Every structure is written in C-alpha cells, then in structure tokens.
Amino acid sequence: MSAASGSIRKPLIGFTIFGLVALLVTYVIFSTLERSVSGSTNSYSTFFTDASGLAAGDDVRMAGVRVGRVDKIELDNGRARVEFEVQNDQQVYTNTRSAIRYQNLIGQRYLNLTLVEGRDSRPLAPGSTLELPSEDSFDVTKLLAGFQPVFETLDAEQVNALSQGLLEAFQGNSVSLSYTVAEVGRLAEDTANRDVVLGAIINNLSTVMRDLSRQGGQLGTVIESMSALIANLNSNSAAFGSAVSDIGRTASGFADVLSRSRDSLADAATNGRIATNTLIQNGSKLDRMAVDAPIFLGHFPMVLGEGNYLNIYACDLDVAIGDVLLPPGIFNKIGGTNHSVVCR
Asked: How far is Cα 281 from Cα 126, in angstroms, rounded to an integer?
C-alpha cells in the first residue's frame, strides 16, 4: 500500500508544480497583453459614427503619451459608444476632442485626445461623455489597396515608407503629405507604363472618394471659403501689383542711396575714429577742464549781475607767448599798482 501511494505521490507533486508554473506564466502573459493602466483612473465615454479597428484594450493617448486604455465598445442608437479610462492625474476638459488614429501599419489603432483651441475649457466630471464631435476612423486598407499598382513596382522598404507616409498624411501631418505627393510623382515618372498606373490608382481610390463624399458639407464649406479668398485676392490684384512695384522701386532707390553714400559713410567712420583717439590722448586736459569749468562758470553771476553788459575788472595781467610765460607782474611794474577800488 505504501509502495503504491509513493508511486502516485511523485507524479502528483510533478503535476502540481507544472500547474503552478503554467498558472504563473499564464498570468504574466495575460498581464502583458492586457496592458493595464497604473494607478487610479477616471472613466469617460465618447461616440463615433464608425469605430472600425478600435478594440477594448487599445491605448488612449494625449500628445502621443499613453495615459489610459479603451474599456468597452458597444452600439448605442446606431452609433459606436466607446468607454475608456484615463489616469486621474490627467484632466479631460469640455473642449477635448477624441479621434481614432492608426498606431502602425498592421492596423492597430488608438484613441487620441486633443484640446480644441477657441472653445470653452472646463474640467469634465468623471463618468461624463465628451461634448465635442469625434473624428471617425479612416479605413486606410482601402487607401493602400488603391495604390497596389504602385506597390507592385517597389521593394518592401519603399512600400513601408510610402504606406507610412500615406497613413500620417491622412491623419493630418502636412509634412508627410508633401513627402507622399513627391514620392508618388517620382514613382509615376519612373514607371514606364505611367498612364496605366495612374488609371488604376484613380479607379481603386474611388472607394476612398466615396468615403470622403460623406463629409461633403465640410468640403463644400472649405471650397467656398477658398473661392471667396481667391476672389478677394483677385479683386485686389491691382493694389497688390502696385504695392509690389512700389516696394521694388523703393528698394532700388535705397540701394542707390547706399551706393552713393558708401564713401561718405567710410569717411565719417574714419573721422569718428580719429576724434575718439584725440579725446583719449587729451584725457588729462579734459579732466582738468572738468575741474576748472565749475569754478569759471561760478563767476558768471558776478560778471553779468549789473546789467546786460560784462562787468569785468582786470586787476592783474600776465602774458604768455606760446609756451613762454613772461615774468609775472611785469605789467604792474611798468604801469604801476594803482588798482581800482574793486581790486583793492
């Protein structure tokens, strides 16, 4: 009996250990795939006309940073209601707009939250529904399928680069749009049968155009606004042309003035440098003048105090010729020392 129980115990222990390891591995895999949000969260919801490709567990991002995850997607009166959670340190506002964006070329999507400028911005209470209209998912599969004739002429690296450019362009990246247009043009030039390629692209993109036609009202508004802008520019074309001509004439005249004044400006700069050097060389004399000037100016009230004439008495006079000073008091010796009352 003991031998039989011993033979069962070893397989039982091994099976138990295997089960525990399997449960641990399963938990690790589940936690990795679930990608739960760290910390406490607040729940919100938003509506989409088309939420194709978005699934529960997908990321919720603000400015490209993951701040939450999608919890549930359900149909509500013909629209897709998306419930999601956001970390409670990330605030959602009344001017927050939701949009479904492509995360990569394999079709994985995420929910992007952005703030719309010029709208009332107040914190949105947890459990509320976003007030602004959302941006629906764009079926990039149809778009990429439309470029199949081009992809057939490319290698894998070029296909990935062009596909990524198309994806970013249709998500609002103007730089990627310019790059994509340039790439398509270059590829069309390099393709021998370019007419056939372009024809196939146009035919295949008809599905995309039908999707865009559903937003015809918005496109119409944009076209009308552009038409009004062009009309205004056209009506003021004469004024614009005159302004451009005046600017050209002014610039030409200014260039002539500078050309004629170049020598004078150079001479002025040279003279300014000479004057500065002279002031530096005579710095000690200027210092002395700064000391004597207040004394000299202090006697002006005495000179002009009697009326509109100079009231000056020469009591003593010494003369210097060049740097040679005549003997002091020589005029007093010659003319005597009978000074006026003021000088006594």
From this structure: 79
